[in-house]
Amino acid sequence: MALIVQKYGGTSVGTVERIQEVAKKLIKHQQQGDDLVVVLSAMSGETNRLIGLANQLNDKPQGRELDVLLSTGEQVTIALLCMALEQQGVTANSYTGSQVKILTDTTHNKARIVEIDDSRIRNDLSKGHIVVVAGFQGCDELGNITTLGRGGSDTTAVALAAALQADECQIYTDVDGVYTTDPRVVSEARRLDHLTYEEMLEMASLGAKVLQIRSVEFARNYNVPLRVLSSFKEGGGTLITAEEPSMEQAVISGIAFNRDEAKLTVLGVPDHPGIASKILGPIAKENIEVDMIIQNTGHDGTTDFTFTVHRNDFQSSLAILKNTAQELGAQEVISDNKITKVSVIGVGMRSHAGIASTMFETLANENINISMISTSEIKISVVVDETHLELAVKALHSVFELE
Length: 403
Ligand code: ADP
Ligand code: ASP
Ligand code: MG
Description:
Blueprint: E1 3-8, H1 16-31, E2 35-40, H2 46-57, H3 63-87, E3 92-95, H4 97-100, E4 102-104, E5 113-116, H5 119-126, E6 130-134, E7 137-139, E8 145-147, H6 153-163, E9 168-173, E10 194-196, H7 197-205, H8 213-222, E11 226-230, E12 238-241, E13 254-270, H9 275-285, E14 290-295, E15 302-310, H10 314-328, E16 332-345, H11 355-365, E17 372-376, E18 379-385, H12 389-399
Parallel strand pairs: 1-2, 1-9, 2-6, 3-6, 9-11, 10-12
Antiparallel strand pairs: 4-5, 7-8, 11-12, 13-15, 13-16, 14-15, 16-18, 17-18
Helix pairs in contact: 1-3, 2-3, 6-8, 7-8, 9-10, 11-12
Aspartic acid binds next to helix 6.
């Protein structure tokens, strides 16, 4: 008998019929003898609908009240699933994040899980009940409702699996696993049977939105076997685990991309110690996350400095940078918010030379200009113009034989 945590995403619980299908699947699974803890998202589109309502009343809805609002989406689905289960004679209890209690810090709209009290869940499981928990939410020490950031139900599921020392955490979604790249963009993308936490972390961080990044961090930190699989189609999906010495590694396992980047450059800054912190300090102070950073070698006492941010933060970053540039006596600020980042990822890169040159040559052959490059041990990312995104992803997918 195993203890399994299963998470169903928005599409999987998007209608009452689909919720009924989930109920049937759960009952079948329970009859095989496993204990089940189920985490649900809101019905697909519901979180966006709630944000839309908030936007009609407030220019910048945020903080505590936005969390009170957004957490309702998941409260609806957990209750409906338990009703569907009861209708079929199975006892199930639903719990909101605060009822469990999933304790988080106080960072509203992007809270981090601090601790999970597993006593109510264990008690229910011992009675043979199915436990259904609202994803994406928790509460802080004062009992305020918090949410975990978009896609946060994945993190609820993995955190519960870690707290309960579950045998596996299964993420049921609208694709039958993790693909070599987004199957909606490259139809030749292939499902991967197995990935390491490191690879999945890079994929998620670099734009593959199939799992929330924090859920993968949790899985890696607590060694939770994580499986992505389809709600609608039978199959083993993709298993994500720690790297084992016996694993046969493909050199490149996937290609991720991010359309939401913007690039800012300050030209002709005096090349003094402390320049990077003077440029990026005011950006960080506004809580803007900087992604890639490049500083050129100084020349004639000045240097150029480039960095990228999320497109949503473009206008505010530009205003801050223009201000800083003036203070520093820099020549000019130039910017481009029509860029995308394309990355190739694979742990096999550690032991294979020539990946970067193959990547650059492939892009050159397609006449695609690279404006920034960044690397880690297991990934190479390039910034290209957004009009070249699909061509770049398809060419790289083919040259690294990912079909
Ligand atoms: P859910 O609502 O179940 O949480 P998401 O929309 O968050 O589902 O995640 C599933 C989607 O992730 C897929 O429909 C797919 O378009 C997208 N996706 C992006 N990159 C990948 C990838 N490498 N492999 C699989 N799916 C991907
Ligand atoms: N409902 C939330 C969202 O749409 C959380 C989730 O589905 O994971 O972001
Ligand atoms: Mg998701």
